[in-house]
Amino acid sequence: MKLIPVVFLLFFGLAISSYLTTNANSDDPEKSFRDALKNDGFVTLEKAVEQFEKKVEENIILPDIPFDANIKVGKITTEGSLNLKWISTNEIDTRTLWMDVVPIKKELKLNPEKWEILELPNGVKAYYDDNHYYELVLQKGSFHYFINHDKENITKEDFIKMVKRYQ
User: Fold this and answer.
1) Which residue range forms the structural domain that includes residue 67?
2) Would the pTM count as exceeding 0.90?
3) Based on the structure, what is the number of domains in the chain?
4) Rounded (10°) angle between helices 29-39 and 3-26
5) In this structure, are 63 and 135 located in the same domain?
6) In sequence order, what DSSP letters do the residues of 38-99 get, joined into one string?
7) Mind listing the pLDDT tens digit for each residue in 104-149?
8) 3-class SS at 110?
9) Domain shared by 73 and 148, yes or no
């Protein structure tokens, strides 16, 4: 009978400890954000790229990011594409750039009324849209690259600078 209060106190102590740890994490928005991404299957950007390149047996090209990202993650989707995110929580508003790398299975058909066609040096065609958010699409090698940014302070020229290494 004397064992029941001890077990109860031990259980109650563990529950309080877990509660305090969980609430302590909620005071750190970056950690909470990282935890949410991890729970969604994201790993470090480097690990995701390495896994994807091993799976497709080909190297991909990463863009030059126009801001300092303190969170860089990625994952291989169930459809077999690579989803990458660069996030900066260092600014007043969070900035996010995300990119999907999709192995080419068929020709990409984009509505020419929606997309502005950009002719990059070296003959690479890119498609640019700034109607809802900012997006650039291009094909290089065996992949389609879909690059998106969520802020108005990025220009078409910024996108072109980001993808110079795709030329």
Assistant:
1) 40-166
2) no
3) 2
4) 100
5) yes
6) HHTT-EEHHHHHHHHHHHHTS-------SS--SEEEEEE-TTS-EEEEEEE-SSSS-EEEEE
7) 988 878 877 888 888 887 778 888 887 767 888 888 889 999 998 8
8) coil
9) yes
